[in-house]
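Worked Example 4.2. Consider the chain below.
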Amino acid sequence: MKPIVLALLATIVISALGFTGTAYAQESGASDAAGMKLLGAGLAFGMAALGAGLGLGQVGAAGLAVISENPALQSKVFIFVGMVESIAIYGIVMMFIILGQ
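Applying the procedure from the previous section yields the following structure tokens:
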């Protein structure tokens, strides 16, 4: 498997193990819904940023190769890079929507 897939699986397992420790905790006044909201917002942004980072690495490498071959295509490469970066912006928007509820 690729290292990024292993890292993602390890993160999911560690997060799932964290839920089992709250079974016998004292009531602190804060609801579990607030914690789940923070977890969901963090996952929404984190996974969107991870996807955007992986995509930007691929698009950036291909874009540099295209620009080195034909510098006239530079504006088209910037459009593709902007489209990939918009995924992270969607993740930030979803994070604020989740936190705003």
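The chain has a mean pLDDT of 84. Helices lie at 3-20, 32-69, 74-100. Compare this with Example 4.1 before moving on.
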